[in-house]
Amino acid sequence: MRLILALFLPWLTFFTIGRPVAGIICLILQLTVLGWIPATIWAVYALSQYKTDQKIAQALGRQA
User: Fold this and answer.
1) Which residues lie below 8 Å from residue 3, measured CB to CB, with a gap of 6+?
2) What is the pLDDT along the chain (64 residues), one digit of tens a residue?
3) Which domain holds residue 34?
4) What is the tally of structural domains in the chain?
């Protein structure tokens, strides 16, 4: 669901993963027509990093 959100409303993705400052910067970037594609790529990348961080935290939590 977040991936679909990252494609259509990239700035909102940052708010759902707890990065509001990046969300505001992404919104400013997205307001330009040429900035839409970089904003989408940035949101998808940030979402993948967020998922990776969650998996690492979960793996470290199980080992303790």
Assistant:
1) 44, 47
2) 888 888 888 999 999 999 999 999 999 988 887 888 899 999 999 999 999 999 999 988 866 5
3) 2-63
4) 1
